[in-house]
Amino acid sequence: MKDMNFGRDLARKGLRNTKHRAAILSILEQSEQPLTAEQVFLELKERGEPANLSTVYRVLDVFTDKRMVKKLNITGGGRSLYEYDRMVHNHHLLCLGCKKILAIGSCPLGDYEKILAEKTDFAIEGHRLDIYGYCPECRREN
Amino acid sequence: MKDMNFGRDLARKGLRNTKHRAAILSILEQSEQPLTAEQVFLELKERGEPANLSTVYRVLDVFTDKRMVKKLNITGGGRSLYEYDRMVHNHHLLCLGCKKILAIGSCPLGDYEKILAEKTDFAIEGHRLDIYGYCPECRREN
DNA sequence: ATGCAAATGCAAACCGTTTGCATATATAAG
DNA sequence: CTTATATATGCAAACGGTTTGCATTTGCAT
Description:
Two copies of one chain form a homodimer. By secondary structure, chain A is an alpha+beta fold. Chain A folds into two domains: 1-87, Arc Repressor Mutant, subunit A (Orthogonal Bundle), CATH 1.10.10.10; 88-142, 2-Layer Sandwich (Dna Ligase, domain 1), CATH 3.30.1490. Chain A contains six helices and five strands. Chain A has helices at 6-12, 19-30, 37-46, 53-65, 110-120, 136-141, and strands spanning 69-72, 81-84, 91-95, 101-104, 123-134. In chain A, the strands form two sheets. A three-stranded mixed β-sheet of chain A has the order 4-3-5. The first copy, chain A, has a two-stranded antiparallel ribbon with strand order 1-2. In chain A, a hairpin with a 5-residue loop joins strand 3 (91-95) and strand 4. In chain A, helix 3 (37-46) packs across helix 4. The radius of gyration of chain A is 17 Å and the shape is globular. The mean pLDDT of chain A is 95. Chain A binds chain B through residues 73, 76-77, 80, 93, 95-96, 102, 104, 108-109, 111-113, 116-117, 120-136, 139, and chain B through 73, 76-77, 80, 93, 95-96, 102, 104, 108-109, 111-113, 116-117, 120-136, 139. Strand 5 (123-134) of chain A pairs antiparallel with strand 5 of chain B. The structure holds a DNA duplex.
């Protein structure tokens, strides 16, 4: 967080340092929540670095390829979310009321994957786990 | 499986017994794999009960509402899959090679959800867990 | 400073899915 | 069995998020 140098991060990944890319990376790095492409697009406008929506998609794609950003499909259908990749394995807890998303650092699947690999003879590469429920605030409200 | 009466199942759910609905339910019930709307559409044609694609979507929606079918978003983006709901909690193991999907009856998340509920004060309602890897056949091939 | 590969803007295409409306059909009432 | 009516279907058009082709601009190596 402190003293981020996104230009250097881009160069390290072999990417050109453009203001849009630096801005998008900054937006995602600073966001508490994963963001949609459109939210990134709108935030760029607010920051005075307006970009075309297709540029936003292209940049997010590149970042995803380079493992700088994670693309999430938590909501199931429709739109994707993007979050800054802090290089930790995590999952997400989604509030069905206010739709807020909490990142969860722990993962209960290590042993299970081993058991599953034995049982099925699959080479397990990974998993997706999202958990949903109602957050304390939303529980209080109804 | 034996002696299925889909017309009766439909009536029990308050749905009219049409040939498309009975056929779609039968197709899903007999399928080893979850199917896309288009696959259902094509199979209907093969069975001599051709339906419009929008009808297929509407029927799948109704079935999903009535909990006769589960709508899956395993692949992340793009298309949804539909599977006959056998009323058991399950997860899916997807082969990244041949894309086949295995249903897994076991679920490792019971205790974890309790712990998470305590830690976060969320009321946990459910979760989504998909696991991916390479099946025995695909492992052998490369 | 300059040349070239890569990034961007713009508009149009894309693809899975949904919708409005006219017609056809299943079911309940007589 | 017939009829009335609510519901299901077909068709074509719209939709929403995302992608793409192409002309223009920009970053960066030289």
